[in-house]
Specification:
The chain is α/β, with parallel strands linked by helices. Helix content is 35%, strand content 28%. It has a single domain, classed as P-loop containing nucleotide triphosphate hydrolases (Rossmann fold, 3-Layer(aba) Sandwich), CATH 3.40.50. The protein contains 7 helices and 10 strands. The protein binds adenosine-5'-triphosphate. This is ABC transporter.
Length: 227
């Protein structure tokens, strides 16, 4: 494997049973993601974008094929080890922010760091820097319901990168926002990815945003193809 490949998917298969029939969603999908690049995953609804992100992000097991993260094969690892990799190497952003409503923005960003064992003061410092970086430093003490949709999503992005992961997966991160806010949030996400040398795979239906990324891939007949 080349040194700068942070994610490698090889021959990924994923099938779901539906009564008597089997729904084959991924049929030998291959994909590589390199350090520092942002790749758009654009494909029609139901073709398997979320499935691919979940398999790559170690949230689901593939039925066949290999997931390798930073050169480490992840098949056959214990659930405990997979959770540790997910916690330390992978960030996830969803269409809906899934922030904890009873905690402030800054506390939401501190949470994964505290779980990873970082001291409170350091976690707070990094959370504060991330909020500043996302240009919402002044909103840190507010709870999610007191923030706009774009602000909530920027907090969710900051939370996803709080533990300085290697790879960021985002599933329609701006799908719930109006076009102008979507661009603004994507600007912040892009700047963060570029600045930190992360790699990102972002599922989106927004062709304008996809055009701004380094590469575009789709899912065709259960395989990942560049377009
Ligand atoms: N746990 C499951 N059991 C059965 N079928 C499933 C399961 N998860 C996903 N599917 C099916 O697999 C297909 C792909 O789903 P997936 O969510 O990956 O699509 P998607 O491309 O992300 O779609 P969208 O753009 O609408 O979010 C769909 O037909 C879905 O119904």
């Amino acid at each position: 494997m080349k040194r700068n490949v942070v994610l490698q998917l090889t021959g990924i298969e994923r099938h779901y049973g539906q009564g008597e029939t089997v729904l084959s969603i991924l049929k030998g999908a291959d994909f590589s993601l390199h350090r520092g690049e942002i790749v758009a995953l654009v494909a029609p609804s139901g073709t398997g974008k979320s499935t691919l992100l979940h398999v790559a992000g170690l949230l689901e097991h593939p039925d066949a094929g290999d997931v390798t993260i930073n050169g480490n094969p992840c098949n056959g690892l214990s659930d405990e080890r997979r959770t540790a990799i997910r916690r330390n190497e992978i960030g996830f952003v969803y269409q809906f922010h899934h922030l904890l409503p009873e905690f402030s923005a800054i506390e939401n960003i501190m949470m994964p760091q505290l779980i990873a064992g970082l001291p409170w003061k350091e976690a707070r410092q990094r959370a504060s820097q991330l909020l500043d970086y996302m240009r919402i430093g002044h909103r840190g003490e507010h709870r999610p319901t007191e923030l706009s949709g774009g602000e909530q999503q920027r907090v969710a992005i900051a939370r996803a990168v709080a533990n300085a992961p290697l790879v960021l997966f985002a599933d329609e991160p701006t799908g719930n926002l109006d076009p102008e806010t979507a661009h603004y949030v994507f600007d912040a996400l892009e700047a963060l990815v570029r600045q930190s040398g992360l790699a990102a795979l972002i599922a989106t239906h927004n062709h304008d945003l996809a055009a701004r990324m380094d590469r575009r891939v789709t899912i065709s007949d259960g395989k990942v193809v560049e377009f």
